[in-house]
């Protein structure tokens, strides 16, 4: 497959035929990122009387990545699809292995991703991936009804009790309240801040300006709220979030929270600002991805986030990795080495 409008159209049509519709502009955005020249998408093609159509797809996309402080080439596994008329031919495994060969030849160090409950077995048992962890869902309850409806013992109360606001707005110190303002575009200051935040993080997608602008400003059909705090003209923290109608409720998503580790009060003010806005928008809950060892985990906990019980999780997701070099596997397979947030999600 090439970075060609006709190929993108065929890609979309394969998903559309198999009850997983894709918007063409989002397909183009996802795979024409500007992070790398190569398109790491392999397809099996079936000729038709007038054209040709895609029978199967395995796709990863390049991301900027930091491995123990070193900039390396990495890719996130994203789209897999075998047309129902071509299942049982081994196309998934064949295409995936072809992509991994291309990654090794291109000096990529790893491919990682988030297989759901339906695909996890294939990745971990047929493709040689190592499971790092379950995706670290956290939740901050904001209203009562959403939770009552999901707890079998209390579900009957949801119909008779009022939908009470669980969390009220929290005060933000005036020194921060006056200085927090919208971010119009990320620049080199975001990169400087990321280096401070990630100084002790062995493995993470690099939150540089190019990646952040692509992820949050260029994504078609999305409007993320982005707030930053500047002290004497220097960016010392930012928060990114969005509220969506999903999973049977009005859900806030904490996409990212990055702060100067020397200024935790700034991070607290930014997170309070985001949650206050979600309360004003009548969100039922706020979800986050955050490991217990993450530099900003304490900020999550002090603002009412808890590890999300499996029964409340919107989807079963696993976090896994495939090392392109055998010597990297012990480092890559260790949960404590990773930083994740909803910024890494391909679905929100």
Automatic annotation (TrEMBL):
UniProt-listed Pfam families: Acetyltransf_9
Gene3D superfamilies given in the database record: 3.40.630.30
Protein name: Uncharacterized protein
